[in-house]
Design brief:
Layout lengths: L7 E12 L2 E7 L2 E3 L3 E5 L6 H8 L7 E6 L2 E2 L5 H5 L2 E4 L11 H11 L8 H7 L15 H13 L5 E5 L7 H17 L3 E6 L11 E6 L2 E7 H7 L2 E7 L2 H10 L4 E3 L4 E5 L4 H9 L5 E8 L2 H12 L8
Parallel strand pairs: 4-9, 4-10, 7-8, 8-9
Antiparallel strand pairs: 1-2, 1-3, 1-5, 5-6, 10-11, 12-14, 12-15, 13-14
Helix pairs in contact: 5-6
The structure holds adenosine-5'-triphosphate (ATP).
């Protein structure tokens, strides 16, 4: 598929990484549109951190390339593109005996920023404005995580890269973090690249997804396509399930017979259409309900399919 590279802040092209004999990442091509919330989803060891470390310049790819704000890997000015991104990979490196503002001041100095003027605004953005005089060692996990994000936001990056930012957070901390990330994306138009596993709840923020498994990209798609791709299923209990088959076959619908009375029908047909069609026969409907396959099942299916083929979708 041809991609218009002007639309993307970050693209990778066949990116691969081997550690001695072990392939941690193989031939991965992802496309992160400007203004998106891109969730890189995969189980432990899928290669998420490896991919992030490569695009952050912390490691060199074994093969393939990437392009950051239009500059290709290898361009001698790539550092200018890197200045436009903020990262939090692993636990944020904080000075525990200092306050949040003092930690930010150190970061500002390291980045060569001319003034500390916008530190109060940054602290307010991440919800740490009321921590004056408090040392970081007294902070909760969620506060430390938010300070880590504030450090990554120093210099107002256009792209924020976060690796498992919910690690160690309780459910309330996750909700607060989700709101902060939404705010950054909507109010500051910061593009977000978040590596996450499914249980963190962050994938629900995503506008785009890349599913990684065993170092390979199983699929890349946007939230709308994912919603469509999450199969809808109608569970039907009738007096005689085999009698329904002729009707379903006529309409070329896919279905699965579970027992003499139960079957599952996959889209496209609405419950109303199905009930109307059955009402014209002598089949008795005992119950009918519709359920939707969630993100988790979608990923599980992908992993199963992944054994036989890989692909990208837009
Ligand atoms: P997790 O959620 O557990 O952090 P991940 O998707 O981020 O997983 P990576 O950290 O990228 O996965 O690791 C991918 C694979 O590469 C793992 O099997 C890991 O053991 C291996 N790996 C990562 N770094 C190295 C290294 N420096 N040397 C050897 N193998 C490595």
């Amino acid at each position: 598929m041809e991609y218009d590279l002007r639309k993307y802040i970050l693209t990778t092209d066949g990116l691969s990484k081997k550690y001695r004999g072990f392939t941690a990442l193989q031939d991965v091509s992802i496309h992160i549109p400007k203004g998106s919330v891109y969730c890189l989803i995969g189980r432990n060891g899928a290669g998420k951190t490896t991919l992030l470390r490569l695009v952050c310049g912390l490691q060199k790819p074994t093969a393939g390339s990437y392009s950051l704000f239009g500059r290709p890997y290898g361009d001698r000015d790539i550092y200018k593109s890197r200045r436009r991104m903020g990262t939090m990979i692993g636990q944020p490196a904080l000075y525990p005996s200092m306050t949040a503002a003092e930690n930010l001041q150190i970061q500002y100095r390291m980045l060569g920023m001319p003034s500390f003027r916008d530190i109060p605004e940054l602290l307010a953005l991440v919800g740490l404005e009321n921590t004056k005089g408090l040392r970081v060692q007294t902070f909760s996990m969620g506060m430390k995580q938010r300070l880590g994000i504030a450090l990554a936001l120093a210099g107002s990056p256009d792209l924020l890269i976060l690796d498992e930012p919910t690690a160690g957070l309780d459910p309330l901390g996750i909700i607060e973090l989700r709101e902060l990330l939404l705010k950054l994306n909507r109010e500051r138009q910061t593009t977000l690249l978040i590596a996450s596993h499914l249980l963190s709840e962050l994938p629900r923020l995503a506008t785009h997804y890349g599913f990684l498994e065993k170092g390979r990209l199983l699929r890349e798609l946007d939230a709308h396509s994912l919603e469509e791709g999450c199969r809808k299923c109608i569970s039907l209990t009738v007096s005689n399930s085999s009698a329904v088959c002729a009707l379903l076959d006529d309409r070329k619908l896919s279905y699965r017979i579970l027992s003499d009375t139960d079957l599952e029908i996959y889209s496209p047909i609405t419950v109303t259409e199905l009930v109307q069609a059955l009402a014209a026969t002598d089949i008795h409907i005992l119950s009918v309900s519709q359920r939707e396959e969630g993100l988790e099942n979608y990923l599980l299916n992908l992993v199963e399919i992944g054994a036989s083929g890989y692909g990208t979708e837009k």
